[in-house]
Design brief:
240 residues, mainly alpha, 79% helix, globular
Length: 240
């Protein structure tokens, strides 16, 4: 697994993909957080809501762009057959590739800690920011990124065409994050709550309120495991 992780991470860092993803993400969230309408400086109080509300929608497109080549390229080039001949289980292949994309997401988010430091310093009095909410939001964003990575990896395991893998991954990420929530709004009462509970946005926003509930973490981790499991099943079918 570590060999797969190292190979995938080196592949990302030795290509323009990683740097384009990191650059695009930081430029977009930086502009909307600090310069465009309703930015931090216009609010008049220390808050990073704009950043945490926008990031998931950028991830919907950027993460499938990272993962689309993970297995699709292996299928197309035929190197997947070489992987099958090595002493690696399907789980090791899947988890190695998943962790590589997750680490790239983590690297992408690290520079944004400067936003928190800046807002912390700008607070009046200094430090007047809901740190618990920021920690919860970062945890939610990492788990959401991991979920999107698992979805993108699954879509990459479905086809040898990277563009098709990207489209499938982006559409499914949108449905899981925002589509289910929009469907829930059509209903009311218990039905609305049940459908809303199935959406990723419900659990992400709950973590962002600063109350880290194990139910939200368990749900997101369960979705990750499910997507990795079906990816593994696709590899088993491909191996036969």
């Amino acid at each position: 697994m570590l060999a797969i992780l190292k190979k995938e991470l080196n592949s990302f860092l030795n290509s323009f993909v990683a740097y384009i993803v990191i650059g695009v993400f930081l430029v977009i969230v930086g502009l909307f957080t600090w310069f465009f309408d309703s930015n931090v400086l216009d609010y008049g109080y220390a808050d990073l809501n704009n950043f945490f509300q926008l990031s998931p929608f950028i991830f919907i497109f950027l993460i499938p762009a990272i993962t689309m080549r993970s297995l699709s390229e292996e299928y197309k080039s035929g190197t997947i057959e070489l992987l099958f001949t090595k002493p690696l289980s399907e789980w090791q292949i899947v988890i190695g590739k998943f962790l590589a994309s997750f680490l790239l997401i983590l690297i992408t988010l690290l520079p944004t800690l400067l936003y928190y430091y800046s807002v912390y310093q700008l607070g009046s009095p200094q430090g007047n920011i809901d740190s618990a909410a920021v920690i919860g939001s970062y945890l939610g964003l990492l788990l959401l990124g991991a979920t999107f990575s698992s979805v993108g990896l699954w879509s990459s395991s479905m086809t040898d065409n990277q563009i098709v893998a990207f489209v499938i991954g982006a559409v499914l990420c949108y449905i899981l994050y925002a589509g289910i929530q929009q469907l829930a709004n059509v209903f009311s009462g218990t039905t609305q709550f049940f459908i809303s509970f199935l959406s990723l946005s419900y659990h992400y926003e709950a973590l962002g309120r600063g109350l880290i509930d194990s139910r939200n973490i368990i749900y997101l981790v369960s979705v990750i495991f499910l997507m990795l499991f079906v990816t593994k099943q696709n590899l088993i079918v491909k191996k036969k």
